[in-house]
Design brief:
Elements (H helix, E strand, L loop, with lengths): L1 H21 L15 H32 L1 H32 L2 H33 L1 H34 L1
Length: 173
C-alpha cells in the first residue's frame, strides 16, 4: 500500500513540476518510476495541501461574490422562465394538433389530395386518347408526347403516394 501511495505521489509530483516549469504534462505512465526522497514526498504533499487550501478559498470567494451580486437567484429565475416557456410551447403544439384533428383539417387535406389524384388520372387518360388519335396522324410526334405523359403520370403517382404517406403519418402521430 505504501509503495502504491509513493507511486501516485511520485507521478503527481512529476506532472506538477512539468506543469509548473513548461506547461507540458506527460501522459500517465505507470511503468515510469522515479523514486522520491522522503523530503520530496513531504514537499509534494505540502504543495498539494496548499493548493487545496487556495482553491477552497477561491471557491468560497466566488460563491460569496455570486451570492452578493444576485447572480444565483438571477440564474434560477432564468431557468424557471425557460422551463415555463418550454412547457407553454409544448402545450400550444398539443392544442394546435388536437384542433387540427377535431376540425378535420387532415382528413380534408387527404380527401383533396385524393380528388386531385383522380382528376390527374382522368386528365392523363384523356391525353392518352388524344395521343392515340394523334398517333394515327403523326407517329413520331405521338411517341414523344406519349413518353412525356407516361413520365408525368409516374412522377405524379409517386408524389401523391409520398404526400399521402406523410399525411397518414401525421394523422397517426
Amino acid at each position: 500500500m505504501n509503495e502504491l501511495f509513493a507511486i501516485i505521489i511520485n507521478n503527481f509530483y512529476i506532472k506538477y513540476n512539468m506543469k509548473e516549469n513548461n506547461n507540458s504534462i506527460p501522459s500517465w505512465n505507470e511503468n515510469t518510476f522515479h523514486q522520491l526522497t522522503a523530503k520530496q514526498t513531504v514537499g509534494t504533499i505540502q504543495n498539494v495541501s496548499k493548493n487545496i487550501r487556495e482553491y477552497s478559498l477561491l471557491m468560497k470567494e466566488t460563491m460569496k461574490t455570486l451570492r452578493e451580486t444576485g447572480a444565483i437567484p438571477e440564474m434560477a429565475l432564468a431557468i424557471r422562465e425557460g422551463s415555463y416557456t418550454i412547457r407553454d410551447t409544448v402545450k400550444d403544439l398539443n392544442d394546435t394538433t388536437q384542433e387540427l384533428k377535431r376540425n378535420g383539417f387532415v382528413t380534408d387535406t387527404v380527401s383533396a389530395v385524393e380528388n386531385t389524384l383522380k382528376s390527374a388520372e382522368e386528365s392523363i387518360t384523356a391525353v392518352k386518347e388524344i395521343t392515340n388519335d394523334a398517333e394515327k396522324i403523326s407517329p413520331n410526334t405521338t411517341k414523344v408526347v406519349k413518353d412525356s405523359f407516361d413520365l408525368i403520370k409516374t412522377e405524379t403517382s409517386q408524389m401523391a403516394e409520398k404526400v399521402m404517406d406523410g399525411l397518414k403519418n401525421k394523422v397517426d402521430a
